[in-house]
Recover the amino acids of this structure.
């Protein structure tokens, strides 16, 4: 029984070079000794608010028919998304969460030695999918307001750049870009690159007064795609439905070529469709999130932490104590939050907004941990 990999060729070179994966911690990973059911999940940017009752009913109904495969062309959901976004139905591609679409775009665009340009700190999957394809990650620090530095990113483009990720609102800083800024970047990129606008937190940005960039992107030259998700503002992270709004037919066709046929389950398609139709429920999630985010930001300021001005369902801040200590202290009090894992941001924590009760518990625990 040999543990060592006997193969000189498997897995292929870039993947051999990657470290073993680390998984996002949930309550079951907590070493606090507290009953996992009592631990508050404020570390994964999930919604603490359940999905629309209409979505739950639609999923229950769909569950009675899971002996049949789902629609491989996701017709009902892409038709509704087309009406919702104004993007042609044939340019909408669904993913098993938008994370799957991030994997796919890197597979489509990045070969060994290519450069992938990203803001930092930002969503860790960008680095992972770059490594899978043997690419090189080029990072540009975000601005003080936590949004991507458009001029800095344009300066960092080389003739090896193949993929550019913009994340707005940016996870984990929560900074929001204007349409003028997104379009300025798009217009400055050569057509040998692809622009991804990761809008996982799009709805939160709009709720905070942000713009929709899709119409303005319609006539830029660079190939582009926007990724959105049902995981956040619709409270459906466990369902796994994300979607790509593609800037051209060619972009959509590329995704269609490589995807697995039945990638979004029958239950997921039905739940997302019903959730999309219940905008009032989503709006109430957004408003309750805004209230708790503002309470958390005010509490952080009171406790001497410097927070980025986030519009997302999370707040990141620099604390007067080491983040490892803060996270452990909070976890011992039944609250899980996370640290930022990006060079230069080692002294930051990120807190996902919860419900009102979660905020009370978080702020009380933070006061003890930071006051001690
Ligand atoms: C910026 C960003 N993009 C994409 C994702 C992936 O979301 P999902 O795969 O649930 O759609 C996340 C999740 O936290 C995120 O923060």
């Amino acid at each position: 029984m040999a543990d060592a990999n006997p193969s000189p060729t498997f897995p292929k070179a870039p993947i051999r070079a990657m470290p073993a994966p680390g998984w996002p911690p949930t309550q079951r990973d907590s070493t606090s000794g507290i009953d996992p059911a009592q631990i508050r999940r404020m570390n994964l940017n999930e919604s603490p608010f359940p999905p629309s009752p209409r979505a739950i009913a639609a999923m229950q109904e769909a569950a009675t028919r899971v002996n049949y495969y789902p629609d491989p062309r996701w017709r009902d959901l892409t038709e509704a998304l087309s009406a919702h976004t104004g993007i042609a139905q044939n340019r909408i591609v669904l993913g098993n969460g938008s994370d799957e679409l991030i994997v796919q775009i890197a597979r489509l665009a990045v070969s060994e030695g290519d450069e992938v340009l990203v803001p930092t700190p930002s969503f860790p999957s960008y680095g992972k999918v770059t490594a899978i394809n043997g690419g090189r990650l080029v990072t540009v620090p975000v601005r003080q307001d936590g949004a991507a530095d458009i001029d800095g990113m344009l300066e960092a483009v080389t003739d090896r750049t193949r993929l550019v990720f913009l994340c707005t609102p940016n996870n984990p800083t929560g900074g929001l870009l204007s349409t003028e800024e997104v379009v300025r970047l798009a217009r400055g990129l050569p057509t040998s690159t692809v622009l991804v606008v990761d809008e996982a937190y799009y709805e939160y940005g709009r709720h905070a007064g942000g713009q929709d960039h899709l119409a303005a992107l319609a006539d830029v030259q660079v190939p582009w795609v926007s990724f959105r998700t049902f995981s956040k503002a619709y409270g459906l992270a466990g369902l796994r439905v994300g979607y790509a709004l593609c800037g051209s037919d060619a972009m959509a066709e590329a995704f269609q070529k490589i995807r697995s046929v039945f990638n979004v389950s029958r239950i997921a398609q039905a739940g997302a469709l019903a959730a999309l139709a219940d905008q009032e429920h989503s709006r109430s999630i957004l408003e309750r999130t805004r209230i708790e985010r503002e309470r958390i930001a005010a509490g952080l300021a009171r406790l001497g932490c410097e927070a980025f001005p986030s519009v997302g369902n999370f707040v990141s801040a620099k604390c007067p104590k080491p983040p490892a200590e803060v996270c452990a202290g909070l976890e011992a009090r039944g609250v899980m939050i996370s640290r930022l894992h990006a060079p230069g941001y080692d002294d930051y924590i990120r807190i996902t907004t919860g419900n009102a009760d979660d905020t009370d518990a978080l702020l009380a625990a933070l006061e003890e941990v930071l006051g001690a």
Notes: The longest helix spans residues 279-302.
